[in-house]
Amino acid sequence: MKFDLRTSESAKLPFHTVASLKERLAWLINLRWISIIALLFCVPVADEMFGFKIGFDEIINIAVILLAINILYFFIARHFPFKNEYQELAFLELQILTDLLIISLVIHYSGGIGNPFYFLYLVQVILSGIIFPGKFLPYFNAIIAALLLTVWTVLEHLFMVDRYFLREEPSAALIITSLLAFYITNFAGIYIINNFMNGYRSLKKIIDQKNVQLEKAIKDRSRTFRFAAHELKSPMIAIQSTLDVVKSLFSSDLRPEVKEMVFKAEKRSSQVIEMIKELIAVTQYNLGMEKPVFEKVDFDKWLCSIVDHHRAYADNKNIALVYNHLTVTLNINIDTSGYEKVVSNLVNNALRYTLTGGKVFIEPFVSDQSYGLTVKDTGIGILKEDMEKIFEEFYRSKIARETEQIGTGLGLNLVKEIVHHYKGEISVKSEIGKGSEFKVEFLLEENQNSFEQFDESKQSVLL
To answer: In whole angstroms, how large is the CA radius of gyration of the chain?
Structure first.
């Protein structure tokens, strides 16, 4: 029998993908393993303990046939990938029809309509309502289940096939009542499930459309920010250059208060340029324009060189920048471009929000499963209520704004995005007035990296 799945009311399968259907295929295969084990276990127990006069040998044979079928299904699912959702759905429908037929045989040989487990038909009917879009296949399978039970019951009642009883022979009234109860449960159940799933699919389709619109809006916003940042960068650099010229040519002729204003303007322009660079970096990363640059590096030496770039800023603020070397050599393949942004943002933030005379500590670490670094400072700290917000776009806490007026609030958001992109974790501990500690940790993948133990004790370098 051939089914045209495209006749479904939801032919476009708004929430199905080959991957999601494979998960549902795994449901059926796993449920079948459980059924096989249950049959092979329950039949001998029922024979020994209860002495039922049912077709024990036939049921064992059915279980063996089901085992062979499930092995075949498993082999097909594992080694013959489907090209599209419709092939996957056709394979699922074939399994459901086969299962309905096998259930009808098991029910027949284990007592027929007198066996209360005849409601097992409903398992396949429910799965059909969950898996298949539209109304055709779910209702078709519900009708097949009702027909199979009805046909076997009629054949048994008319003595046209062998009969097996768990107890005394059921009366005609009991048979009719049982069939009516099954019809009502069967079709009412598929009606409820089908309506629920159609509502779910419609809602999921709307959510997917909104997600597409949201992603487009985010990309458009990022493009706008990037364009604005690029447009601002050139005039700001021109302003800074003009201030440099004024300072170098007319420094001796300027009154002290004017000279101070020039120095303040120069400092502010430098801060704005750094903010623009940060904005450009974030938007480029969000737009996928920032290509990863993978290199195999000595993690300790590479990290120390990145930290060293911040020495001038630390010296200018009279902050002690302490780097604690690894006691091992870790050779690792990393995206040096992305990781440098993570390190630079964390170190720069630590220096910005640490007052003159404070300290900033950078410490790499490595274990059997992971590696990373911690950045600890003696700065202003972070309020408890701000801890979960600091990684949000454009968020700057009140105490951060009071300490450092210029900033985008994008640095930590970029750090989080890069860390999560490489399946890492970032955490923070902080106390107001005592400083903060950021920890970045990545999984150490096997066969990619190596590290050798040093005999020397751990070193600390004051940069």
So the answer is: 35
Residue 4 phi, psi dihedral angles, 5° rounding: -95, 100
3-state secondary structure string, the chain? CCCCHHHCCCCCCCCCCHHHHHHHHHHHHHHHHHHHHHHHHHHHHHHHHHCCECCHHHHHHHHHHHHHHHHHHHHHHHHCCCCCHHHHHHHHHHHHHHHHHHHHHHHHHCCHHHCHHHHHHHHHHHHHHHHCCCCHHHHHHHHHHHHHHHHHHHHHHCCCCCCCECCCCCCHHHHHHHHHHHHHHHHHHHHHHHHHHHHHHHHHHHHHHHHHHHHHHHHHHHHHHHHHHHHHHHHHHHHHHHHHHHHHHHHHHCCHHHHHHHHHHHHHHHHHHHHHHHHHHHHHHHCCCCCCCEEEEEHHHHHHHHHHCCHHHHHHCCCEEEEECCCEEEEEEEEHHHHHHHHHHHHHHHHHCCCCCCEEEEEEEECCCEEEEEEEECCCCCCHHHCCCCCCCCCCCHHHHHHCCCCCCCHHHHHHHHHHHCCCEEEEEEECCCEEEEEEEEECCCCCCEEEECCCCCCEEEC
Superfamily of domain 294-462: Histidine kinase-like ATPase, C-terminal domain (3.30.565.10)
Tens of pLDDT, residues 157-214: 888 888 887 777 778 888 899 899 999 999 999 999 888 888 888 888 888 888 888 8
Which residues are CB-neighbours of 159 under 8 A, at least 6 positions away? none
Of residues 303 and 197, which shows the higher confidence score?
303
**412, 430 Cβ separation under 8 angstroms:** no
Q: What pLDDT digit, counting tens, does each position of 99-141 carry?
A: 999 999 988 888 888 777 888 889 889 888 888 877 888 999 9
Instruction: Identify which of 356, 357, 353, 373 has the alpha carbon closest to the alpha carbon of residue 365.
Output: 373
Nearest-angstrom CA–CA distance, 143 and 239? 79
Using alpha carbons, list the distances in angstroms from residue 222 to 133, 277, 286, 292. 37, 14, 7, 19
Domain range annotation of the chain: 5-170, 294-462
Burial class (CB in 10 A: 0-12, 13-18, 19+), 181: exposed
